[in-house]
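As a warm-up, study this chain.
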Amino acid sequence: MFDPVSIDAEYMERWLGGAKIDSLSAKTLFDIRTLITHYRDIIVPDSGVKVEFPTEQNEGAKASVDENIIYIPTHLLEDGRIDDTLGCMIHELHHIKLSDSERQTWASCFGMICKCMDSLFVETGDEEWTSIYDIVLSDSTLDFKTLYSNDTEVTENVMFLRTACNDLAFLLNAVEDIRIDSLAPPNLAKYEEKMSTRIFKEHFAPKYESGELNENSLFNVAFRLLFQHKGFINDSFIEERFGDKSLILNQTPKEYTPLIFSKFADVIRKHIEDLFKNKQTNFETTLGGVDYMDLYMSEKSMTDAEEDLLNEMSEDDKMVLRAKEDSEGIEFEDAEVTKGEVQVSIGKKLAVKLSEQRQKRNKPKLLPATFLAEIEAFKDISVHHTTEHFDASGFKVDFSTIIFDATN
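Now compare it with the structure written out below.
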């Protein structure tokens, strides 16, 4: 099923008492899931979190706070990275224990994005202006189900807002990664530290040291914030804006999210502006289908559209209130969105490259039902070791008995 060129399983082999792993057999995969389940019971005891392999039946791999499930990332197993696989799972289990739900994160990001959009204006002709907020929220196809899906057959406005929510969530996720990895006990943190060190050396360090990540774009800032507080770099911009790591470690997402939004408000709004520029370089074409008189005459309906979408995202009134509080007090001066296409920053390219692993979780190597059954069979097998003494001379034989419980 898996035939990697090499296998990196230093920590896994220690857990197995020094046994060498030289293949990814059904027994090895069973041991990997057993160890992940063991760590699950330590990190989130009595939580009911499911630990599964992605199979032909479920067709996907993910970790979800909302759904209380984690799927083992088979793309890492394809590369033979067993310790990284365990590191990913330990990391995701801590997300389930400590992090906001996906819905709360999106609701908070949406609230902040609306503030940015409401302060960015484009000229529609004859010295008339309208905000990005009015343009995007006037899209009649916009609802949470469409926004939160992976459907590509959507309008430019929906795709713009989806991208904006995902990108801002990326920044918050970088902050949360710092918190959960720093709070992990040493016996578990070693897996994540090994993986972070590899990613830093292979992907981030060459670009950072060459100055390619100097621009203070949202993605560059997210990566620099992450590696600053993991102790890999000393970045003056991050130190000035958010240098106190204790503000992350000693607070919950509810407490630090408003700080992140406030400290990096200019970075966030610039990112929203750039996204809109890239949405359609020909502004006349972009704006041609909008009835601006209707927009100006229907300010209440746009506010209602924001409120309706926020309510769809949220599970209850507390989530709505929290989303509003996270960007409360942040104000922007109105600004014009200038024409012209924005080049994709190096940080964006790096984010795309590093997120390939995450994307592969949506299209992982799927395990056929027959192979999964082979893995499952090991839970019904027990091995008993004993020593048989035959006479007074001390002659003895050590042997093991394998029992398969077919009653399960």
